Amino acid sequence: MKVNKLAPEKNARASLKWRNTKAQRCRPPVNSSELNSSPDLVKMIKEHQAAVKKKPKVKRLKKKAKTLSGSNEKKKTLYECKKSYPNTNGSSAVTINNEANDWQEWSANGETTLGNGEKSADGIEAVSSGRLEGESFHYCAERDEDRNHAVLVMQKSQTLCFRGKCLLTCLYGRVEVMGFTIEEGQQPYPLFSPASHCPLTVTALGSTDDARDEGMEATAILRKYLTPASRKRLLRRINLNSSVILLEPMETPLTRFLCSFPDLSELFSPPVSELMSAVLDTPLNGLGMIPLVSDVEGLAMSQSYREALNTVVSACRGDGDGCVVVLVCGTKNVGKSTFIRVLLNTLLNHTTGIDYLEGDLGQTEFTPSGCLSLSTVTEPLLGPPFTHQRTPEHMIYYGQSSCDSDLDRYLESIKSLWSRRSQCRDTPVVINTMGWVKGFGFQLLVDVIRLLPVSHVVQLGHGESMQCPTLTPDLLQMAQGYLTKPPAHTAMDEFTEGHSPARTYTHLAVQSAFQGVGRQGASKHQRSNELRELSLLAYLSQLQEADQGPVRQLHCLTPYQVPHTAVAIGVTHCEVAPSHVLYAANASLVGLCCLAEKVTSRGGPVVLSQAPLCPCVGFGVLRGIDMARGLYFLLTPVDPSILRNVNCLLLGAITLPSCILTTQSGFEGEKPYVTTDYSFDLTGAGKIRVFKGMARPGQVGM
Q1: Which of 160, 198, 559, 701 has CB atoms 3.0–4.6 Å from 633's, for a disulfide?
Q2: Model pLDDT, residue 128
Q3: Does residue 16 carry a pLDDT above 70?
Q4: How far is 358 from 309, CA to CA, in rounded Å?
């Protein structure tokens, strides 16, 4: 492994012991064009669809349309005077005057109510209820080519399932995404629907005001976003049960950085299994969205799933004593993370914030894997974890994706994070747990329930088989934990004055019913190791500039210079000889931590003998070590004001994705940190991988 030494910068900016040095800059790769509108992708999808001819799914009914209630004369009198209505986006009021012509034409052409699958008087087919697909988009969506956005009209209970990414603004009515209700007048929300997770579904909820005047309000709204011709076509579709949304393309440093890697260039496109279900040639495709037909299942909620959500939401809205603490548990690949995102989004409809305690080292929600953290969620989560990476209020870097090597450190970290939460807060708390629910994993789960004031336990399962014992309060009275033991009872306990009754909680059993439950995703980007790499790449995307410039590779960025004597360095997951620690840490991910005691050095690197339990403020890439000058070269998105408190670098088992090292551009010859002078044919040359789920020969067929 080569050390990338950098020339010193005379005019380097200094921030206490952290200093910047200018690194070599190379021409970065040109950013890829909009993937979802790629001609190659569109051609490939059309070839797949042409191979298998399917009958159209949009039914064309010839039932006569119903007449609209009310007279036109009465409507005309409503708009003879000049009126002002508040803008739905929260800006100043707009004056309605010259929209009368639009409204009169809409009223004349809309003498029929466009029902489900019916035809209007002018021969235009109405969209049916349920999933929007096929030709329906040409009737209920209009796109403004100049401003590159589209307006979509949805009737109550209609859904839009799609792949891709976009910004959604609700202009009229309400829509729901992943449990979160978006209403008119709110800010635009980013939606991410990559191939790594279940596709997002937008559901129309209609309006809550039955007395509003949909005609004039809709005219005032649409005239801001559409041309007169497009506006008149959509006005015929709007009624009191309609929802109108604005869809805009979205490009962020995150999406540009991820899509710059060849293996991730199609991340926001439909996977191969969905190519036949993609709806092309709609007004939405050029915006970075590809709608899907009803053959593709969106988020599937069973009856027990919905009942558990309603129970928790009702408890949080009640006036009970103390805050609601919800622990979500279950085996792997059963939908815990998705359930938690829906729960958090649903709670945000009723409260301004929820505390979230991360107890799953492998599939973390807001940080790269290997972290335990405590966060306050104030914004909806409308995408998978790698789309909303953020710095928690409190975080501990464990350094591994599993805690089986050090159970005590895991429990101590959980207790440390909980102790930093203010006990006087009445904010609801949601706790995520690992999918390890057998053996020591089950004992850890029992300990967490006993150590924390849990009020609700949501246990997810699937099928008829028992993946984990049912964690009812009665079972907890007898279960053996790793640190805790079941309380000892005697026949005289109930008559003793000092006896306290056993703590109880509400147990909610949820039966997951989505396709592929209990099995790890086999498609590209769906395996657990790929999801962990996506979260880490998303964190490193914060190093990119906020503007829409080209993507800059990590070797083109300016690192900090950190003196060896200013920070200690340690390894969390294994024992490494002190003389080999710097070799192991070079070109690796390190946690930026804050030790309580001051670091003292005798002139060389400070190496810790064991991993400390200390706060972590972020992560960095140790891209070079200069032994001659005694400097670490570190890349990190952490703010310099926070870096002043960092005095410890922790190396864990979380490694950098190989694509970061192998796709470096601008080099002639051998790339830094990558060698070809190595033979994997030698015995022991490769990494030893332990497959814990592999059945022993004696267990085959059991």
Answers
A1: 559
A2: 54
A3: no
A4: 19
State pLDDT tens for residues 578-599: 999 999 999 999 999 999 999 8
Residue 27's φ and ψ, nearest 5 degrees, are -65, 120
pLDDT score of 358: 97
Residue type, 271: P
CA–CA separation, 447 and 293 (whole Å): 45
- Helix residue ranges, H only, 432-515: 440-451, 473-476
And the tokens for 230? Answer: 């497009």
Q: Give the span between the Cα atoms of 158 and 291, in whole angstroms.
A: 13
What six digits make up the tokens of 361? 């080292």
The structure's pTM equals 0.81
- Residues 100 and 223: their CA atoms lie apart, in Å, by 12
Give the DSSP letter string of 516-571: TTTS---STT-SHHHHHHHHHHHHHGGGS-SSS-----GGGSPPEEEETTT-EEEE
> Are the C-beta atoms of 134 and 58 separated by less than 8 Å?
yes
Which residues sit opposite 429 in a β-bridge? 325, 355
Side-chain-side CA neighbours of residue 690 (13 Å): 4
Number of Cβ atoms within 10 Å of the Cβ of 77? 8
Phi, psi (degrees; rounded to nearest 5) at 626? -105, 100
> 491 phi and psi, to 5 degrees?
-70, -20
Tokens standing for residue 364: 């973390």
Rounded Cα gap, residues 480 and 501, in angstroms: 19
pLDDT higher than 80, residue 691: no
> Token pair for residue 350?
């009723």
C-alpha–C-alpha distance, residues 202 and 188, integer Å? 14
Distance CA 169, CA 167 (A): 7
